[in-house]
Amino acid sequence: MIRDCTKFDFEEIYEIINDAATSYQGIIPADCWKEPYMPTSELRHEISDGVKFFGEERMGNLIGVMGRQSRGDVILLRHAYVRTAWRKQGVGSDLLRHLLAGADHPVLIGTWSVAYWAVRFYEKHGFAVIRGARKDALLKKYWSLSARQIENSVVLADPNWVGASHSS
Length: 168
Fold this sequence. Notes:
The protein is an alpha+beta fold. The chain has a single domain, classed as Aminopeptidase (3-Layer(aba) Sandwich), CATH 3.40.630. The chain contains seven helices and seven strands. It is globular.
C-alpha cells in the first residue's frame, strides 16, 4: 500500500535512505560520499524545503520511499530509495507510478550519472536523459547542489518535458 508519509515516519525514511544509499559507496566520487549518506539534519532540511515523501508499506513497515517537490513549472522526484531487502520486487515502480499519477506538471529527476541502475530504471519508465549544458542549467535552476554534484549528475525528464520547448 502506498501512502503519504507523516512526521511519525521520519526515522523509517532516514533508515531507508541510508540503507539503500550504501549502493553508492565506492561508485560515486569518494569526496561526495559521507556516512551517513543523508544525515537527519539534511533530511529535515529537505522536508522543510517542500519535499513530500510517499512510502510503500508492507506488513506495517515502510519498505520504500520517494519524494515529490513542486518547483513552479516542474515537479522534482527526489530521494527515491527502497530497502536493500526489497529491491527488484516492483516497489520503486509502484512508487514512481503513484507519484506520476498525481503530477500536474512535467517531472524531472536528478541522479548520479554513475548510478547506471537508477538511470536505466527511469529510462525503462519513459524518462529521457538530459546531459551537458542543458542538464547543468536545470540542476542549477531547480536543485540546490554543489558544483561537484552537478558535475557528476544527470537529469531525467518525462516525455511531457522532453516534448516541450523549454529554455533553461
